[in-house]
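Weekly structure sync, notes
Attendees: PL (lead), two postdocs, one rotation student
Agenda item 3: pending single-chain targets
PL asked that the sequence for the first pending target be pasted directly into the notes so everyone works from the same version. It is reproduced below exactly as submitted, 218 residues in total.
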Amino acid sequence: MDMEGSILDLNSFRETKQLQGEKNAVQLYTLAEDYTERTANIREKVRVKHLFRKTLGLPPEAAFTSLQHEVFQNWFLFDYKTIQGSTMFSLFLKNNSRQLSEPDLIQGALFLTSAMEPVRVVKIDCTVITAVGAESESPFQMRHMHGHLPDMSTCEWLFIRKIPIQMFDFAMGPVLPVKDKVIVDRMLDAYSEAKKKFPELTWRAFLKTNVLYFLFGE
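Predicted structure, written out during the meeting:
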């Protein structure tokens, strides 16, 4: 086989693995959402909604917009700590470990460390998005679980949650436009200040506990 044929075969293999990984990630995400809906008790749901509204500065009984609801569900699943000190996603993995496959558990570990993060879109080529991170400014390519995202434009800052797969990172859940680049600057300043007090603090750990304060900022 010539070199060109070998490259084509390798690319085809990697694309197949990418698609398998994306399909598996969506299934895992859906199962975890269903688990959260079924198992979270009323007390926990009341507590988390109160905390979400308070952090966003919403009135106690304010109804969520469709986007706020989507962000709430995602935050409740991955970032909110229950009364027992665990996230709902970690409880999902723990209580379903015997039914989940090895690829599920590997992706589950990636989901556990994922965070809503600000990224700047550099280029959109069909469903492949080239972007850079806010803190490292390292370029990467990603796709989203919903495919085409017509609202996205070049050089637009977005909040997304993603995990690495094969060829591309894979974004899951809501895509939240950043209203002003100043919000990203404030996040980076807040992270720098936090690092002075806690030198071991990572960007991802900072996001896991603080990003909600910035998601809907003006």
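Discussion points:
- Residues 85 and 102 are 25 Å apart (CA to CA).
- The chain has a mean pLDDT of 90.
Action: rotation student to compare against the earlier draft before next sync.
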